Model the fold of this input.
Amino acid sequence: MKFIDRIIEDIPMLDIEKTESKYHNECNYLADSRVILDNLREYEVEIPKEYFEKYEQKFGNGVLQYMETLTNKSEDEFYGGNTYNWCGKILHDFDYRYWQVDRDTFYVAIQVHRVGDIRCNYTEFALFKFGSFEEFVEVIDDICSEKMGGDFEYNGKHYLYDISIFCEWLRVWCVETQQDYEFYAYDDESFIEEIKKNED
Done:
Protein backbone atom coordinates (compact mmCIF):
# COMPACT_ATOMS: atom_id res chain seq x y z
CA MET A 1 0.00 0.00 0.00
CA LYS A 2 1.02 3.60 -0.61
CA PHE A 3 -0.32 6.59 1.27
CA ILE A 4 0.48 9.82 -0.56
CA ASP A 5 -3.04 10.25 -1.94
CA ARG A 6 -4.64 9.55 1.45
CA ILE A 7 -2.36 12.09 3.12
CA ILE A 8 -2.99 14.79 0.50
CA GLU A 9 -6.75 14.33 0.94
CA ASP A 10 -6.32 14.62 4.71
CA ILE A 11 -4.54 18.00 4.60
CA PRO A 12 -7.09 20.77 5.20
CA MET A 13 -7.08 24.12 3.43
CA LEU A 14 -5.82 26.89 5.69
CA ASP A 15 -7.46 30.32 5.83
CA ILE A 16 -4.29 31.84 4.36
CA GLU A 17 -4.78 29.71 1.22
CA LYS A 18 -8.18 31.24 0.46
CA THR A 19 -7.93 33.95 -2.19
CA GLU A 20 -10.13 36.30 -0.18
CA SER A 21 -7.73 36.20 2.77
CA LYS A 22 -5.79 39.42 3.33
CA TYR A 23 -2.75 37.23 4.02
CA HIS A 24 -3.08 35.19 0.81
CA ASN A 25 0.04 36.82 -0.70
CA GLU A 26 2.12 35.01 1.92
CA CYS A 27 1.36 31.73 0.11
CA ASN A 28 3.75 32.88 -2.63
CA TYR A 29 6.56 32.48 -0.09
CA LEU A 30 5.54 29.10 1.32
CA ALA A 31 5.89 25.63 -0.19
CA ASP A 32 2.67 23.66 -0.65
CA SER A 33 3.00 20.34 1.21
CA ARG A 34 0.58 18.69 -1.21
CA VAL A 35 2.73 19.60 -4.22
CA ILE A 36 5.86 18.25 -2.53
CA LEU A 37 4.16 14.93 -1.72
CA ASP A 38 2.74 14.67 -5.22
CA ASN A 39 6.26 14.98 -6.62
CA LEU A 40 7.75 12.41 -4.24
CA ARG A 41 5.75 9.49 -5.66
CA GLU A 42 8.72 7.78 -7.31
CA TYR A 43 10.45 7.58 -3.90
CA GLU A 44 7.52 6.16 -1.93
CA VAL A 45 7.92 2.64 -0.55
CA GLU A 46 5.14 0.08 -0.89
CA ILE A 47 3.89 -1.05 2.53
CA PRO A 48 2.78 -4.71 2.67
CA LYS A 49 -0.96 -4.92 3.24
CA GLU A 50 -0.51 -7.15 6.28
CA TYR A 51 1.35 -4.37 8.10
CA PHE A 52 -1.49 -1.95 7.45
CA GLU A 53 -4.14 -4.43 8.56
CA LYS A 54 -2.22 -5.39 11.68
CA TYR A 55 -1.42 -1.89 12.94
CA GLU A 56 -4.09 0.47 11.58
CA GLN A 57 -6.38 0.26 14.62
CA LYS A 58 -3.84 1.04 17.36
CA PHE A 59 -0.57 2.18 15.84
CA GLY A 60 -1.28 4.22 12.72
CA ASN A 61 -0.94 2.57 9.34
CA GLY A 62 2.01 0.17 9.72
CA VAL A 63 4.58 2.47 8.10
CA LEU A 64 6.82 2.85 11.14
CA GLN A 65 6.57 -0.85 11.90
CA TYR A 66 7.61 -1.74 8.35
CA MET A 67 10.45 0.78 8.60
CA GLU A 68 11.60 -1.08 11.73
CA THR A 69 11.72 -4.29 9.70
CA LEU A 70 13.60 -2.68 6.80
CA THR A 71 16.18 -1.02 9.05
CA ASN A 72 16.43 -3.67 11.77
CA LYS A 73 15.98 -0.83 14.28
CA SER A 74 13.22 0.00 16.73
CA GLU A 75 11.13 3.12 16.28
CA ASP A 76 12.67 4.83 19.31
CA GLU A 77 16.11 4.52 17.66
CA PHE A 78 15.08 6.50 14.57
CA TYR A 79 16.34 10.05 14.20
CA GLY A 80 13.68 12.70 13.75
CA GLY A 81 13.04 16.25 12.65
CA ASN A 82 10.27 18.74 12.03
CA THR A 83 10.26 21.62 9.56
CA TYR A 84 8.65 23.72 12.30
CA ASN A 85 11.95 23.63 14.20
CA TRP A 86 13.75 25.07 11.16
CA CYS A 87 11.09 27.75 10.58
CA GLY A 88 10.70 26.09 7.18
CA LYS A 89 8.88 27.91 4.40
CA ILE A 90 5.97 25.46 4.22
CA LEU A 91 2.19 25.66 4.61
CA HIS A 92 1.79 22.41 6.55
CA ASP A 93 4.87 21.29 8.47
CA PHE A 94 6.52 17.91 7.87
CA ASP A 95 7.41 15.71 10.82
CA TYR A 96 9.84 12.97 9.80
CA ARG A 97 11.68 9.92 11.19
CA TYR A 98 14.72 8.55 9.40
CA TRP A 99 17.53 6.02 9.36
CA GLN A 100 20.56 5.45 7.12
CA VAL A 101 20.84 1.68 6.63
CA ASP A 102 24.04 1.66 4.56
CA ARG A 103 25.91 3.91 2.12
CA ASP A 104 23.11 3.83 -0.43
CA THR A 105 19.95 3.16 1.55
CA PHE A 106 18.13 5.82 3.53
CA TYR A 107 14.53 5.57 4.76
CA VAL A 108 12.39 8.46 5.90
CA ALA A 109 8.79 8.36 7.14
CA ILE A 110 6.89 11.65 6.78
CA GLN A 111 3.64 12.78 8.40
CA VAL A 112 2.06 16.18 7.77
CA HIS A 113 0.70 18.63 10.33
CA ARG A 114 -2.92 19.48 9.68
CA VAL A 115 -3.68 22.52 11.88
CA GLY A 116 -3.40 23.72 15.47
CA ASP A 117 -0.87 22.69 18.10
CA ILE A 118 2.35 21.59 16.37
CA ARG A 119 2.75 18.76 18.91
CA CYS A 120 -0.31 16.92 17.62
CA ASN A 121 -2.88 16.63 14.83
CA TYR A 122 -0.82 14.93 12.13
CA THR A 123 -1.78 12.79 9.15
CA GLU A 124 -0.66 9.19 8.89
CA PHE A 125 2.88 8.43 7.69
CA ALA A 126 4.19 7.63 4.23
CA LEU A 127 7.56 5.93 3.77
CA PHE A 128 10.23 7.01 1.28
CA LYS A 129 13.59 5.65 0.18
CA PHE A 130 16.60 7.73 -0.89
CA GLY A 131 20.32 7.18 -1.03
CA SER A 132 21.09 9.50 1.88
CA PHE A 133 19.75 12.30 4.06
CA GLU A 134 21.49 14.75 1.73
CA GLU A 135 19.63 13.35 -1.28
CA PHE A 136 16.33 13.58 0.62
CA VAL A 137 16.91 17.29 1.30
CA GLU A 138 18.18 17.94 -2.23
CA VAL A 139 15.18 16.28 -3.89
CA ILE A 140 12.73 18.33 -1.82
CA ASP A 141 14.68 21.54 -2.41
CA ASP A 142 14.62 20.82 -6.16
CA ILE A 143 10.84 20.29 -6.06
CA CYS A 144 10.39 23.57 -4.21
CA SER A 145 12.67 25.39 -6.66
CA GLU A 146 11.02 23.98 -9.78
CA LYS A 147 7.38 24.01 -8.66
CA MET A 148 7.14 26.84 -6.12
CA GLY A 149 9.98 29.27 -6.62
CA GLY A 150 8.89 32.76 -7.59
CA ASP A 151 9.85 35.92 -9.40
CA PHE A 152 9.44 39.49 -8.33
CA GLU A 153 9.87 42.80 -10.15
CA TYR A 154 10.87 45.91 -8.25
CA ASN A 155 12.40 49.21 -9.30
CA GLY A 156 13.08 47.97 -12.84
CA LYS A 157 14.86 44.81 -11.74
CA HIS A 158 13.79 41.18 -11.78
CA TYR A 159 14.40 38.88 -8.83
CA LEU A 160 14.07 35.10 -8.81
CA TYR A 161 13.71 33.32 -5.48
CA ASP A 162 13.76 29.76 -4.17
CA ILE A 163 11.98 28.39 -1.12
CA SER A 164 13.29 25.72 1.25
CA ILE A 165 11.22 23.85 3.82
CA PHE A 166 14.39 23.32 5.85
CA CYS A 167 15.26 27.01 6.21
CA GLU A 168 13.52 30.32 6.87
CA TRP A 169 15.63 32.20 4.31
CA LEU A 170 14.81 32.83 0.67
CA ARG A 171 17.58 32.31 -1.88
CA VAL A 172 17.29 35.30 -4.23
CA TRP A 173 19.00 36.15 -7.51
CA CYS A 174 18.82 39.45 -9.41
CA VAL A 175 18.73 38.95 -13.19
CA GLU A 176 20.17 42.35 -14.08
CA THR A 177 23.04 42.53 -11.57
CA GLN A 178 23.68 38.75 -11.31
CA GLN A 179 23.84 39.23 -7.55
CA ASP A 180 22.81 36.58 -5.01
CA TYR A 181 21.01 37.29 -1.74
CA GLU A 182 19.71 35.33 1.22
CA PHE A 183 17.11 36.97 3.39
CA TYR A 184 13.88 36.43 5.29
CA ALA A 185 10.66 37.63 3.64
CA TYR A 186 7.08 36.43 4.01
CA ASP A 187 5.13 38.67 1.60
CA ASP A 188 5.71 41.23 -1.16
CA GLU A 189 6.10 44.14 1.25
CA SER A 190 8.77 42.43 3.34
CA PHE A 191 10.51 41.29 0.14
CA ILE A 192 10.79 44.91 -1.01
CA GLU A 193 12.10 45.99 2.38
CA GLU A 194 14.85 43.36 2.21
CA ILE A 195 15.81 44.39 -1.31
CA LYS A 196 16.10 48.01 -0.16
CA LYS A 197 18.35 46.98 2.74
CA ASN A 198 20.58 44.86 0.55
CA GLU A 199 20.95 47.53 -2.10
CA ASP A 200 21.81 50.39 0.26
In short: The first strand starts at residue 79 and ends at 82. The chain has six helices and eight strands.
